[in-house]
Amino acid sequence: MSDHVKDEAVAQQAEHASLAQRAAEHRRAGEPAAETEPIFEARDVTVFYGDHRAVTDISVKLRKNQITALIGPSGCGKSTFIRCLNRMNDLIPTARVEGQIIYHEQNLYDSKIDPVQVRKRIGMVFQKPNPFPKSIYDNIAFGPRVMGMKGDMDEIVEGALKRAALWDDVKDRLKTNAFGMSGGQQQRLCIARALATEPDVLLMDEPCSALDPISTGRIEDLMLELKKNYSIVIVTHNMQQAARVSDMTAFFTVELDAGEKHRTGRVVEYAATDKIFTNPDDKRTEDYVTGKVG
Ligand code: ADP
After folding, report:
1. Ligand 1 pocket by Cβ (under 6 Å)
2. Which one of 59, 91, 99, 150 is least enclosed by Cβ atoms within 10 Å?
3. Is 92 in contact with 64 (CB distance < 8 Å)?
4. Atom of ligand 1 nearest to the CA of 265
5. Which residues neighbour 158 within 8 Å (Cβ) at sequence distance 6 or greater?
6. How confident is the model at residue 26 (pLDDT cuts 50, 70, 90)?
7. Smallest CA separation from ligand 1 atom 10, residue
8. Which residues are CB-neighbours of 226 under 8 A, at least 6 positions away?
9. Which atom of ligand 1 is nearest to the CA of 92?
10. Are 108 and 101 spatial neighbours (Cβ–Cβ below 8 Å)?
């Protein structure tokens, strides 16, 4: 690595560390208010795959302009639950969702709700960046075109790329293929693509697990910036990440119920992130966040 690249990397890490520290200080100072209005209210949500009850009885309120982290061991249902929030489980033929998810005062699972419209308002970003094999421009324009959004497409594309902190990197090569970008840039492109349809929620399922630490830091900085205007839910297996960026944390576990042959995931504890990491109520949460079990 050249000295210049090293200096830049060190500077970025320092900038990221100070942003994350400021976020933690804000939380300790009681900001943002824990009482922002709920954007989602899950009421007794249970999800089956065939006859396997994968998660059970999830009742949580996820609040506006906050970052909510879902943590817990593999297989405890974090991805299953986050997919409920934009009806992605509808695409899995064996999946069945019981209970209610209230979003803007409507049950997302009401028969009158159009899942395509839901996914426009509730964007999703996945573990592996998955740009389309198209130009950077067309990746962003795809959703607005499909949705028939009105307005100047150049402005829509520029706005989404700016909000994802990617505009300066790509403004001179909008017509080049998205596959030519680095992994971290591709993930920010996927975030920009999700933002282009004007959602109010961003769901992120392990968005950094395929990225190096510097790209991860950039995505975390972006999340802290985006929460001013969006509500974010993130699944992460990286506890430091949850501690750095989130306001609220839900800790899931997976246990074998008496008389059941499959293990079922559930939320053990849901509270402000600082409480979950420093003074949790439940021994299972404490064992997990201190690394005694995993
Ligand atoms: P996590 O994200 O916490 O690792 P998942 O939501 O992926 O957990 O999985 C929870 C449970 O649901 C696991 O037992 C897993 O095998 C099961 N599961 C997840 N997706 C599917 C699917 N598409 N079909 C059947 N079972 C699934």
Report:
1. 49, 54, 72, 74-80, 92, 94, 265
2. 150
3. no
4. 10
5. 167, 171
6. low
7. 77
8. 163, 191, 195, 202, 232
9. 23
10. yes
Range with lowest mean pLDDT among 4-18, 56-70, 81-95, 197-211: 4-18
Beta-carbon contacts of 264 under 8 Å, excluding residues fewer than 6 positions away, are 53, 54, 55, 56, 77, 254, 255, 256, 257
Domains in the chain and their CATH numbers?
3-132+190-289 (3.40.50.300)
Q: What's residue 119's pLDDT?
A: 86
pLDDT on residue 234: 98
pLDDT in tens, 37-74: 999 999 999 999 999 999 999 999 999 999 999 999 99
Q: What's the gap in Å between 166 CA and the centre of ligand 1? A: 33
Tokens 């750095």: give the residue: 244
Q: Which of 45, 80, 233, 251 to mutate to test the pocket of ligand 1 (most atoms within 8 A of CB)?
A: 80
Of 191, 201, 192, nearest in space to 230 by CA:
201
3-state secondary structure of 20: helix
Q: Which atom of ligand 1 is nearest to the CA of 73?
A: 3
Nearest by Cα to 237 from 272, 206, 280, 273? 206
- Which among 79, 260, 262 is the best mutation to test ligand 1's pocket, defined by most ligand atoms within 8 Å of the CB? 79
